[in-house]
Amino acid sequence: MIRAFLATLAGVLVLLAVYPTFGTGYGVRATQQVFMWIVLAGSWNLISGLTGYVSFGHVAFYGIGAYAGAILVTRAGWAWEPAALAGGLAACLLAVLIGYPCLRLKGPYFAIAMLGLNEVLRALVSYFEGLTGGGSGLSLPTLDASVPIYYAMGLTAMLVTLLTYRIVTSRFGLRLMTIREDEVAAEAMGIDTARHKLGAFILSAAGPGIAGALTARDQGYIEPVSVFPLAMTITMIVMALFGGKGTVWGPVLGAAVLFVAQEMLWARFPYLHQLLFGTIIVAVVLLMPRGVLGILQMKYRLPRTI
Amino acid sequence: MAAVLEVDGLRKRFGGVTAVNGVSLALEARRIYGLIGPNGSGKTTFFNCITGLERRDAGRVIFKGERIDQLKPYQIALRGIGRTFQVIRVFPELTALENLIVVTRGDAGAAGRRARELLGLVRLDGLRNEYAGNLSYGQQKLVEFARVLMRDPALILLDEPAAGVNRTLLNDLLEAVRRLRDQGATVLLVEHDMKVVMGLCETVFVLDHGDKIAEGPPGAIQADERVIEAYFGR
Asked: Which end of chain A is more exposed for a tag (fewer CB within 10 A), N or C?
């Protein structure tokens, strides 16, 4: 069983690695998008799926990464690879800064604070025109790096998933889950919940920051509304919920299935696709709040490593 | 002998209600104490103030010679105070075994062995891989009890350990408490089951409306007029 799984996984990875050599332009782009959604949904899962602190503004890390990367490329002439890492670092720094005050808030208050953070950041980047280009956006010098960026995004998705695996199978991961299960009891049992929440929060910011910087480089143009959209937060949440929050492979499954579903709906029902996607969201939340893997895990007592 | 825990003038108010009104007491090592009183007399609040879950308004709490009343709950727990809750607080989506392992640091193998041993003690080893939320009320209570022991606390606060636990299990549990005492721990328990209190505790404190109204061996407490009055009215 595990062997078959690992063999399949290896096969898929090899296929994805050679895909750009024979895939269509659309296919490669779409796959790269799936990678990006794996990064976003997987990262959201690290803080919200494990600790239960639902972040409704996680796209803020993506946006800050996009701007940090784009500014370094355009104003400081950095290559996109270090700029992408800097985007991840910028997102982590933001997480440290806002994690201290925001992670004291419980339940809906944390969600709202994160939502507010995203709006504030969007307003801020619009305001500081000199650095960010303001509302008219920021254009990056032309560069064709779509294939390397495909690999970079794929690598980031792999790292986020691997990190999730390592965390979920460790006592650190169990401690994060106790925060979700019963934070008061966790404290009373000697778990420093504040530090653990902050740690998970910082880890959950890195991936989106890198993904943002990579996407900015890939698209060659960013503006406040394109990198801080609330809809992106909602999509990553739904993907993680669909696959199974708190699981290793849930966000991967959710990102792949829902992205493909979204593309197909969009192509077939150009006017109704948002309505249909909305219906899927409601159905997921109502009918299977644990997600596909969460249900399987509970029903068949599967290990946490799925 | 020096006290393990010394509480001096502990006071806690919620709005207009004084839940704990300047309570002082001292607990010595290797003894089992009881804390009783009618509903709303401040027993759980007293526990919460000692373990840091509630910020006390006044008074001092000294554990092993150090003040702990300014510390965070997890710091207090790490110093060696463990507790259970009146309303069970296991981690429902962690397995019974994980519920115990999660509170440990360091050697994972040793933690696993110790967890198995403690689950064996409360006769739950066969259910170790079951999600704690799927266990019965009594079993969850035992998981919580075993979880407290994982850290080998010097002081154990038990909030109604007997409620909802059947007789056979209860006897095991009480036996386990006695053994802990013999191994050097101090136990303070809140309990409504007078048989348990009288059979187990060496000294009993009585709270009423936040005041400590009596302290002494169980026999004397049962005969104390103020205690009878607090429970049954004049």
From this structure: N
